[in-house]
Design a protein that fits this description.
four-stranded parallel β-sheet; 11 helices; Rossmann fold; 42% helix; alpha/beta
Length: 253
């Protein structure tokens, strides 16, 4: 039986056509999610929706590390037992960095209590939601009601070492902070985000402001629902996850 000889090796033809002119891929972004999972899932929805018509290959590149088993952040802060929280955040950030993430977002403001303790090589990759909030506050210049978990408030995550915080942020009184904390946990278990509007309509006038900072990532569910319902003008907010989602979408993170 005659065997055909293999054709001689030839260089592959040079690529041609529209693919040659495609822009470079956007940076690979890592998201430490799962704290809670609904909030970090909504962050991804905010990155990809509404679709902007670009080809799929040019869409944002995101790795989601979603681990809901992380210790309750407020309980860890209240008990002064931060080791388990730190280890969980370190493991997630390191895992995303190893997978190639160039920038990493920890999608839990309360977990930022341990962010600064990360090794410098990991910390340099992280985007601080606290820094995002203060950048937006400085740009706006008006006072905002600080809506956050009890753990965030107790640890001073948004206020400690921030000289301008007293001018830009109004803290909740203890009874209102407790009510908000209950609201956050209602959202964690799948409660209707628009149900939070009753809380907002009650508490905002009490402090003489219209604007608030969504300094708990569960409140990203609320700001997205408010936007979808066409109520953003009634409830203007600084939402760090919305800001980050826009930067990821535009390749600016």
């Amino acid at each position: 039986m005659t065997r055909l000889s293999a054709p001689p090796d030839r260089p592959a033809p040079a690529p041609s056509g529209p693919a040659c002119d495609a822009p470079p891929a956007l940076p690979l972004v890592g998201v430490v999610g799962g704290m809670g999972p609904l909030a970090s899932t909504e962050l991804l929805r905010s990155v990809y929706l509404p679709a902007d018509g670009r080809p799929e290959q040019q869409a944002p590149r995101v790795l989601l590390w979603s681990d809901p088993a992380v210790v309750d952040r407020t309980e860890a802060i209240g008990a002064g037992r931060l080791e388990a929280l730190y280890r969980a955040v370190e493991k997630a950030v390191e895992g995303l960095a190893t997978a190639g993430a160039e920038r990493i977002v920890v999608a839990c403001v309360t977990a930022h209590r341990v962010l600064g303790d990360l090794p410098p090589a990991l910390l340099r990759r992280c985007v601080s939601l606290v820094d995002v909030v203060h950048e937006e506050l400085a740009r706006d210049g008006r006072p905002h009601l600080l809506l956050c978990t009890k753990g965030t408030a107790q640890a001073g995550i948004l206020t400690a070492g921030r000289p301008t915080a007293a001018r830009h942020l109004l803290a909740l009184r203890p009874d209102d902070q407790e009510a908000l904390h209950r609201e956050v946990y209602r959202l964690k278990t799948g409660g209707d985000p628009l149900g939070t509007l009753d809380f907002l309509r009650t508490v905002l006038p009490r402090y003489g402001v219209r604007r608030f900072v969504a300094a708990c990532t569960e409140l990203h569910l609320v700001t997205r629902a408010v936007e979808a319902a066409g109520l953003s003008a009634e409830f203007p907010a600084i939402d760090p996850l919305a800001v980050v989602a826009g930067r990821i979408k535009n390749g600016e993170l």
